[in-house]
Amino acid sequence: MPDEPLLITALAAIGRALFRYRSELAPINAGLTLAVAGLLLHHTHPHAWPMVAAATVITALVAGLRGWPWGLSRSGERIYAATTTAVAGGWLTSATAFGPGRSLLPTVLLASVIALGVPWWPHRRRRARVRVDRVIHAWPDLADTIGLDGSRVMSAVVDTWGWRALMKLRPGQSVADVVARVPAIESALGTRPGAVRVEQDPAHSGRCTMRVLAVDPHAGAILWPGPTARSLADPIELGVFEDATRVRVSFLRRHGLIGGTTDSGKSDVLNVVLGNLAACNDVVLWGIDLKGGMELRPWAPCLARLATTPEEATRLLADAVAVLDARANAAGHENTRVWEPTPAAPALVIVIDEYAELADTAPAAVPSAESIARRGRALAVDLLAATQRPTQKAMGGGALRSQMSVRVCLRVRERRDVDLILDKGMLADGWHAHTLDAPGKFYVFADGHNHPRRARAYLVDDDQVRETVARYADHRPGLDPLSQAAIDHHPRAIEPPPKAADEVLLTALNEAPSDGLTIPELINATGMRRTWIYDRLQALATGGKARQVARGRWRA
Ligand SMILES: Nc1ncnc2c1ncn2[C@@H]1O[C@H](COP(=O)(O)OP(=O)(O)OP(=O)(O)O)[C@@H](O)[C@H]1O
């Protein structure tokens, strides 16, 4: 028959529309189903209405109290589920006993469908769920278009900020392929730019989670809730990830690096860490701030020392090396490998605001910083450095960074800075810090944080700094006697090196053989400590008065 294809096409279109809009039509479908069920029950089991009533009460209670069977966790949604179940069950009970066409029952059913449909139709999470279902349905075609053919969406969950889907990739595809196509995915899904994130499934290289953020949870500043750590062993909360989980990072026996361009929020992250460390009773804090103390001075009452000039910084770091040496010595004697920070024997954390400035203006301090970076972790002498310019020079060609196991990367100006702050290859792996679009947004690479997830640091305002300082300044611990003695007996720390020793060093270098003198020979000649010799050699080398002729051998 000529009309048959048209009829089939029309029926198929209606079927597709009914399927596509099944969520919107759910109240009407439920009303129709109830009418049919009432008719059947009334004709076959009219005396079963007490059982229907009992089932209604039980189901409404379970839906209201437990959210079952829909897995509802919000109280509003549970109340809605319980009310709907009670109304539907009550109507079915009456229809079973009296027949669905009796008296006002049809009108009550129609009025209930409309009344209960009113909260249903505009409900945000329901509409989001529908949109997600449609995307899952359309994904095979979308994936073909954007070059991810063969990938599948296995499941999807709607959350506070949007939705996230678990994806299975075609054999041979990798997460890097998905990351590279993020802009194409955003265009295919019709989202705002920057709404899609891709995270590797740690358990399977062929799977990943795709997060679509309808609302940016980091759009506004998130105020610092105050310190949560009380000991260096407690993780420090830096801010929140995009799924509203907290960024908790341990700084125990770890050096930290905070990098980012100007105004990216480095000082703010430092403030969050300092605010927490100030509340820890097993940490002594020292600070270096070569911007004249602009950033760290507000914390001064909680800092046992604050260096604001290159000379002070050099001395401070040399003293830290003396502490390190003393602790290493003691650990050797006592046969212990690590220094456990306690209020009586606290860790020493040295906070350096703008490390590149230190490298430029106090080159003699760099060997000390590098020595602390290399040896400090086990002995609880830790560095926390912020830098705006993660140049190869400032980062010691990567040697310093490699010792820093907590790396926070805020917005950077150039893509290559990502690899300088985090590590080689991280940019290609999706740590796109150049796309961070507001101060305080960052990526963190640390123990337990090995995937590129965007976070936003808490914002610490000046009042909070003042309050925290006022609260903890009087409760700061002092250094343990061993470490304090190391500083007190360390000549460089108290006064400038004796002029005589300086002259002896210069003479020794001038008269050195062509293959130079070793450090032990220079120690012998001057009677000074190794760290003093090292500092002076660096300073003389910068001034062109000494040079290293071979590894570890010096002359004028
Ligand atoms: N987590 C945050 N949330 C919201 N705003 C922030 C956040 N962190 C910083 N800001 C804003 O960004 C501005 C710059 O922050 P901050 O001084 O910490 O940047 P910086 O990287 O240290 O800058 P500079 O390189 O100039 O020292 C601040 O005035 C503050 O208002």
TrEMBL record:
InterPro entries the UniProt entry points to:
FtsK/SpoIIIE/SftA, FtsK_dom, P-loop_NTPase
| Statement: the UniProt record of this protein carries the keyword Nucleotide-binding | yes
**Keywords, comma-separated and alphabetical:** ATP-binding, Nucleotide-binding
Q: Where does ATP bind?
A: 260-267
Give the FtsK domain ranges.
Answer: 233-419
Tell whether Oxidoreductase is among the UniProt keywords: no
Q: Which GO terms describe its molecular function?
A: ATP binding; DNA binding
Which sequence ranges are marked TM in the entry? none
User: What protein does this entry describe?
Assistant: FtsK domain-containing protein
